[in-house]
Each structure stands twice: as C-alpha cells, then as structure tokens.
Backbone:
C-alpha cells in the first residue's frame, strides 16, 4: 500500500471496514500519576485519501474498572479538504476522572467507522501532573 511518496517513513496502520479498532495503549492509573488527577494529551498522525467523504475515525480515551468503561471520550479526527492526501497531526486533551481504583486501566485507541482506508501512525500519550503550590 503506497501511502505517501513524500514520506520518509514507510510504515503505518491502515484501517478500513474490516479493521475498525486499532491496537491501543493501555496503562494503569497508578503508572500515570500519583496525584489526584492528571491531564493527558493523546495524539496521532492521520493520512486520508485525497477523496474522502466517509465517517471520520475517532481517537478514543477511556478508563476501565471491572470490565466497564467510564469517562469515555471519542474525538473525531477531522481534516479539511486541502489537508487530504497529507499527513495531519491531531491531538486531544483529556482530564482524568476521580478514579475508582488506582489499578483502573486508561486506554487509548482509534475507532474507524468508515469503509475507505485511512492510515495512522505515531499514536502517543503524554501525561501532565497538576502544579501543586
């Protein structure tokens, strides 16, 4: 699958209707922060085909406790027409909830509801502790 001839990296995750949930990043709350809460920035690089009029994929962030999800967020990875065919870096900020247990899992992944192929790379999570005076 030729992604972008201008791109020096050759690998990305291609998702379509047969592959709607990406592998994700998972981490226990206690490994993110020892504070009452934290801010998390999740980002990903996205490449849409030059002609794309399908549903936008979403970057999902959520916590899990005993198999159930809470503080669920799904931000659509939107791009303008003139950005299609080019890699676009998109990020969302998320404030952690009051967790039920410090072993609860924080998960980040991509949910692609469209049918046309879309490419993804560089899924990154950054955590920021509050400044305590």
Residues:
């Amino acid at each position: 699958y030729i992604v972008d001839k201008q791109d020096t990296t050759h690998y990305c995750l291609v998702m379509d209707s047969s592959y709607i949930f990406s592998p994700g990043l998972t981490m226990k709350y206690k490994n993110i922060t020892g504070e009452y809460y934290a801010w998390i920035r999740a980002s990903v690089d996205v490449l849409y085909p030059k002609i794309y009029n399908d549903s936008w994929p979403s970057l999902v962030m959520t916590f899990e406790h005993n198999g159930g999800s809470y503080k669920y967020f799904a931000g659509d990875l939107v791009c303008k027409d003139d950005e299609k065919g080019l890699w676009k870096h998109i990020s969302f900020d998320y404030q952690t909830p009051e967790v039920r247990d410090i072993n609860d899992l924080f998960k980040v992944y991509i949910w692609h509801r469209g049918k046309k192929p879309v490419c993804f790379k560089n899924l990154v999570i950054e955590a920021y502790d509050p400044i305590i005076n």
